[in-house]
Amino acid sequence: MAGLAAVNIKKEKIDEPRPSVSTVNDDGRSEAEIEARMLELLHQFPKGISNQILDTDMPTVDKQIKVTILNKLMSKEKVSMFKAAGTQELFWCLKSHPTSRIKGADNEERVVLGLIEEAGNKGIWTKDIRIKSSLSQATLNKVLKALEGKKVIKSVSSVSAAKKKVYMLFNLQPDRSITGGSWYSDNEFESELVDLLNHQCYRMLLQKAEVAKQKQNDGPFTVRNSSFLSSKEICQVISDLKIVKFNLTVEDIETILDTLVFEGKVEKSTTSDGNCDGQVKTYRTVEKPVSSASIVRMPCGVCPVMKKCGNVGAIQPKDCNYYGEWDD
Amino acid sequence: MSSYVLSPFNQTCYQLINKYFGEIVGEVAKFLLRRRYGTLFNIKTGTGMSLWDVKRALAVLIHQNLVEFQANEQNPNIVDYSIIYHNAHCLLRYAKYLYTIKRIFGSSEEVLIEILLKIGQASASDLIFQSANKLNEAIDDVKVINPSDLYQSFQRLATENFIIRCPKIVKSNAFVEKVPKLLEFEDEEKFIVPQLEMEPIAKLLREKATQIGEHSDSEIIWRVNHQRFDVELRNVILVNAAARRVDEKAGHLYHLILKLWREANPAEARASKGVSHILIKDAVRKNDGRSPMLMEHFDQYLRVLCEDSTGLISRTGDSRGGQFAVNYADVFENLACAILDSVVLERFGTKALRIFKLTRMQKFIDQDHMQKLAMVSPKDAKTLSYKLMENNFLKIKELKKGTSNVGPVKSFNLFHVNLPEVVRGVLHSSYKCLSNAMERQTHDLTINKRLLERHADFEKTLEQLRGEDAPDNAIAEFSQSMTVADKELVAKILKLSDNLTLAQSQADETILILESYLKFHSMPMPMFYSMP
User: Fold this and answer.
1) Domain RNA polymerase III Rpc82 C -terminal: where (chain B) (predicted)?
2) Predicted model pTM
3) Is pLDDT at B473 greater than 90 in this prediction?
4) Which has fewest Cβ within 10 Å: A210, A223, B243, B388?
C-alpha cells in the first residue's frame, strides 16, 4: 500500500481583511461629512442624482461607503430611490414628504404610510397595501389602526362597492370616482334631488317657451329662437334658488338637462356664443311629433298580463277586469 | 267548425269579415287567412261547410275585393283562392275613408264612396244610379237628383285617384281557358272615366226604378283605391306632427307641400323628389285666403320646418331657390320612435324611458355609462334595463375583452336597440289590442242583446208617447217599467261600446305609423335625388 500521500493542505490565501468601515476616509472626510455633502447634492438636484453625479463629485469616496450612506438616508426616509425609465439607471432624490416628520414611527408604519400617500386622493385598498408591502394581515391591521388613531389616515367607502374601504391621507379630499360626484351623498344616489332639479329645469324651459309663443306675430323663427335657454343661464337661476347646498357647476346642470332630452321633452342644440369662443349648449322644450301612442290609452296597451291573454284560458278579453274598470 | 288560434293580425281580419259579412263568409275567410292559398275543395273540407255555401261566400269575398284567384301552378285547371290581407285590414278604416272624402270633397262624393264600399265593385253608371237613389231617399224631395252632378263627382274622384278600375278579363278567342286571367291596366288608364250619357239614368230615376239593368259601360268596373286612402291617412298624421312641432300654420304649409310632392311623385318611394321653392311659394299664394300670415313669414316657416329634427322637410338642392324633399323613411322612423317611447313610458315609467331613449341614441352602451347618463340609481338602472330586455325592447351584445388565458375571460356587455324588431313587437301587440277590443265589443253586445233590445223598444215607445202628448203620469208610469239599475247597466254597456270603437280607430292610427315605418324602411334607397 502506498503511503498516504502527503495531502497538501493548501493554505488558502487569506485575503487581507478589508479595512473596516472607519470613519476616516481617504481624503479624510468623515462619514457625517459625506452624508452632509450628499444631502447638499440632493438639494442641488431636486430631480435626483445618479451614480454618475456622485462619482464626479466624490471620485475618491469608496463605492461601498456611498451605498451605505444612501441606504441609511433611505431608511431615515429622507431619500427615495428610483429607476430611470429610459436608461434603467438608478438615481436618488430627496423626499420632501411630511412622513419624515413622523417621529417614533416604526418601519412598517412608514412603509404602509408611504403606500397610502402614493395613492393620492384615490385611496388604496387594504388588499393592495398587503400585496405591495408584503406584510401579514394581522400586522397590517395593527399598523392601520395605529395610524388611524394618530389621525394621519382615514378610510373612505367607495360608491361602486359599498363594503370596500380605501385609505387615504387624512387631509385629502376623496376623488370624484369614489364619492360619485355631486349626486351621491353617503354613498347613495340622490334620486329625489335629481328629480327635483329635473322638474325645476323643465318648468323654467316651459315658461320661456310660453313667453316666446306670445311673439307669434314676429314669425316662427323668432318664436323658436327666443325659446332657447343656454345651460349657463339655467345654472345661474337654479343656483340662485339655493335648492342645493353645494355649488352647482354647469356640467352638473348639463347632466340634468340631458336627462330631460332623454325623456323627449327637451331638445338640445349647440351654437357658438358671440362672447366667448367655443360651443354653447342651448335647450328648449319641444312637443313630441305624436302625442301619445294610441294603444296606451286603452287597457290592453298597458296590460301586465298581455302575454297570457287569449281566446281560451283564465284571461280573456270577454271578462277582462281592466275593461270593466275602464273609464275613459 | 275548426278551432285553432289565429295570429293577432289574422284574428282582426277574421273578426272584421265576420262582423260585416256574417259567419259563413267569416269561416271561409278564416280558413284562407290561415292557409294563405286554398282550392275550392280544400276550403270545403277545411271548413266543413257545403259546397254551395263555400261558393257563395267566395263570390261575396271576390266581389268585395277581399279574395283574389289565380290558376294553380301545378294544375292550371284548378283555381287557387287567396286573401288580400291589406284589403281585409282596411275594412276597419271605412268610417275614416268616408270622413276623409267628406273633408276633401263634399257629401255627393261621400255617398258615391259609401255605395262603392258597400257593393265592392261597380260600373260607373250603376254607381251613379244607386247613389242618386240613396240621396233621393235621404232628401225625400219631389225634385230628383240630377245624375250629371254625380257624374262630375265621379270624375273628380277618379282624377284624384280615389277610385280605380278593376283589372279586366282577358278574352282570348283562340283558346278558351278554364281559369280566366285578369289583366291590370297601365297606370294612366287606371283612372280614365268613360264617356257616359246621363239621360237614360235620369229617365230611370224618374221612373223610380230599383235596378239599372243593361247599360253601356257594364264592362268597365271600378273599386275603391285603398293605397290612395292610405296615403291620405298618412298625410293627416304628418300634418298633425308638423302642427304639433311648430304651430298650426306650419301644418297648413306642410299640407300644401305634401300635395305638391304627391303630384311630383306618382309612385311610392322611400324619398320624394324635390320640389322647388318657387313652386311652394306659388301654392301658398294661391291658398292665401286661409292664412295670410303664412305668406308673410313663408321663408321662416319653411326654414323652421326644415331644421326640425323630425325630418319633415329636407333641403336637397339649391336650384330655383331651393329644392325641398322628404325622406319618408326618416320621418316615419322618428314617428315610430315617438310611439315606442310613449309605450315604454306608459308601461315601465319615466326612468325606463330615459334608459331606452339614451340606448337608442348612443347605439351601444354598457351598464355603467347608462346609469351615469340616465341619472338613476345603480339598482334601478339594473332592474329597468333587465325588464326592458325581458320585453324585447333592449338587447345585449357581448364583446370579449382581451386574450389573456389566465382566469375568467372578461367581456363587455353592451346594450343596444334593434329598431325594426322592437317595432314589429309593438305592432304585434297593437294588433292584439285591436282584436281584444273588437272581441270584447261583440261579446258585450251579444250577451246583453235582449237587454239592449228591450231598452231600444222602451225608448221607442217613450218617444211615441211623448209625440202623442200623453198625460204626464202615463209617461212616468211607463218609464218605470224599466228599472233604474237596468237603465244604468244599459248606459254602461253603451259607453263601453263607444269607447271600444274609439279605441279601435285610434289603435289603427298607431298601426298605420308602425306599418309605414316598416314599409319605407325596407324599400331600397334611391339612387340619387333627381333635380328637375
Assistant:
1) 153-335
2) 0.78
3) no
4) A210
